[in-house]
Amino acid sequence: MQSAARRRVTNLIPLLAYLPFLAWSLIGAGWTLWHHPFSRWFAGVYLLFVIHSLVFRRTLGGTVLVMTGLAGCQMTAAFALHTWLGLPIWTVPVFLVFATALLIMARVRTASARTSPY
């Protein structure tokens, strides 16, 4: 059986690995929203989901909205890798796959740590 301190450290590893992806996702999404007006439509649709959830209270959970928002930031940041930084097109799916996998791992670890009796 693992000690509680070791489990906490193990649960932090995916989160710490995800932080650089999160930082680039926010920076890249901001750049894309500023320089490409078509991406504002995606932000508008997301805001409609948020407003709908706040008004009717029982539609989507807060975790679903946050995860969807982060995934949207990751998609627009992946687009910015190619258009802003001029990196090869293969970096877009690589970034998207790794960022999404780490996001899911961090979320699952956080949820399992919250429900674990130890």
Shape label? flat
Question: Which blocks of ≥5 consecutive residues have pLDDT under 50?
Answer: none
Helix content: over 70%
Beta percentage is under 5%
Order of helices and strands: HHHH
Q: Strand tally, please? A: 0
Could you describe the 3D structure shown?
The protein has helices spanning 4-35, 39-56, 62-83, 91-115. With 118 residues, the chain is an all-alpha fold. The chain has one domain. The longest helix is centred in the N-terminal third of the chain and has 32 residues, at 4-35. It is flat. The model has no long low-confidence stretch (mean pLDDT 81).
What are the SSEs and their pairings?
Blueprint: H1 4-35, H2 39-56, H3 62-83, H4 91-115
Helix pairs in contact: 1-3, 1-4, 2-3, 3-4
Keywords, separated by commas or semicolons:
single chain, 118 residues, 4 helices, 0% strand, flat
What would a concise description of this structure say?
The protein has 118 residues and is mainly α. Helix content is 82%, strand content 0%.
